[in-house]
Amino acid sequence: MQNRTAYSGGDGPAQEDLDAQLSVELASVVSAARRRATRDGDRHVDTAHLLHGLLESDPAVRAAFDGEPQIARLLGYLVQRSIGYGLQWHGTVEDSGAVPVVAEGGVPGWSPAAAAAMDGALDRAHARYAVRAHCLDLLAALVDDPESRAVEVLRRAAVDTDRLAARLDGDRSGQE
User: Fold this and answer.
1) Cβ atoms of 132 and 148 closer than 8 Å
2) What is the pLDDT of residues 107-128, one digit of tens each?
3) What are phi and psi of 25, to 5 degrees?
4) What is the DSSP string of 79-98?
5) Strand pairing partners for 48?
6) What is the pTM for the complete model shown?
7) CA–CA separation, 157 and 72 (whole Å)
8) How far apart are CA 86 and CA 80, in angstroms?
């Protein structure tokens, strides 16, 4: 099992351990998600923050969807998070039910669902014997949790999450 303290966002051995397990692109996505959460006044990075970072940062992630109109709809929902759609999330911890909410010993600054998604991305990379997790690994892990905020956004934007998951499973062998 992964050391979830690695997501704490601080500097030091745990952060260096996580950085060694992420591609440069995925590390950039994680940093962007942290900045977005802070800017939005959220106490935790959640799966919607991670999805937003993935869509903005990685052409391979955007290519996994059904074209530019779908990407535009997704980004529209995500951008509205602080001014409309998503306000119901403000000040709450994302708990998709995939993992129990932990009062102590959780990942500081990360929702339980976001921490589980990061673990899933690392597991997916390790399953294909890769040294580093990539952005598509994280996208697949996000889609694997049907109760996450990221999947809620995907469904609102009319993304067929089952089809997306199947497409991502087909791409699993195509990463280094």
Assistant:
1) no
2) 678 989 999 999 999 999 999 9
3) -65, -45
4) HGGGTBTBGGGTT-----SS
5) none
6) 0.81
7) 9
8) 7
